[in-house]
Write a structure and sequence with these properties.
With 280 residues, this protein is α/β, with parallel strands linked by helices. It is 25% helix and 26% strand. It has helices spanning 16-28, 49-55, 62-74, 129-132, 160-168, 185-199, 248-256, and strands at residues 2-7, 9-10, 35-37, 77-86, 100-107, 113-118, 140-144, 147-151, 173-177, 202-206, 209-212, 215-216, 222-224, 230-233, 239-244. Residues 261-280 are annotated as: Disordered.
Length: 280
């Protein structure tokens, strides 16, 4: 299985429409790959908060149309990264416009939408994405020939329970588009390897290059195998990272080192002896 991660450079001088068309061309150039992955919020930049509302689009908007056609033209499975999605009116907004979501789109080689994932863990604490966008509620997997993808986005990488849920749903390849900042690049690499090792799965983590609203991006998209070995890693600039994977390695790793079988679920919280009442 050949996977290509397109680490897009987001330049604020390039219009969203120009970048959309340029990226569609890059996807078409990956004909012959099985899976192509784009980064998070590459149309606007993950930290360009002021652009989210302005550039938000319906699920089947211009990015959907451009990426569906590019996937079909190239004959590839395409994880098209994520867009600022404006949901339909009446789905939670008091002002009439629908709420925003950070939504990933996955297309089949025929250009049909195979899955949409609304990011569950929003970054920003009390600002930015965390207050501008709604939170997704559902885990998403995508069945490809010979394997199953588990879909997550950027900040999700810090929450291992999400990935356990994806593995329990059958995921063998964990795909993570991101707009990760350079100042926390060490965490990016460490967490990508940790998610691969603990879940005995491939991790394909695709980031952006450039600077979003003054925030330098980490780049360094990375592919990690089920043993935690880094198979390929990009540099800091726009780059296409292509690697051949053997999905059978997931089952082989889990059979050779069956750690997932030793999981203990449903543990009780610690007993607080100081709060217990004594029998007379």
């Amino acid at each position: 299985m050949r996977a290509s991660l397109i680490q897009i450079g987001v330049n604020e001088d390039e219009s969203v429409d120009s970048r959309r068309q340029r990226v569609a061309g890059l996807v078409r150039e990956q004909a012959g790959a099985d899976l192509v992955v784009l980064p998070e919020l590459w149309t606007t930049g993950a930290f360009a908060y002021e652009a989210f509302n302005r550039e938000a689009e319906p699920l089947e908007g211009p990015t959907y149309e451009a990426m569906a056609k590019a996937a079909s033209d190239a004959g590839v499975w395409l994880h098209a990264g994520s867009i600022p999605e404006r949901a339909a009116p009446g789905s939670g907004s008091a002002a009439g416009d629908g709420p925003l979501y950070n939504t990933s789109l996955v297309f089949s080689p025929s250009g049909e939408l195979a899955a949409a994932y609304r990011k569950i863990h929003r970054f920003g604490f009390d600002k930015g994405e965390a207050v501008l966008m709604g939170a997704g509620q559902e885990l998403v997997t995508v069945r490809m020939p010979g394997t199953t993808l588990g879909v997550a986005t950027c900040y999700d990488l810090r929450f291992p329970e999400l990935f356990r849920g994806l593995v329990d749903a059958g995921a063998e390849i964990l795909v993570l588009p991101a707009g990760w900042p350079e100042r926390r690049r060490a965490h990016w690499t460490l967490l990508a390897q940790a998610r691969a090792v603990e879940n005995q799965a491939f991790v394909l983590a695709c980031g952006t290059a450039g600077t979003h609203a003054g925030v330098p991006q980490a780049g360094h998209s990375i592919v990690v195998d089920p043993w935690g070995e880094v198979l390929a890693e990009a540099g800091p600039d726009e780059e296409i990272l292509t690697v051949d994977l053997d999905p059978a390695k997931v089952a082989g790793t889990r059979e050779q080192f069956p750690a997932l079988k030793d999981r203990v679920l449903g543990l009780r919280p610690p007993h607080d002896a100081s709060s217990s009442s004594s029998s007379p």
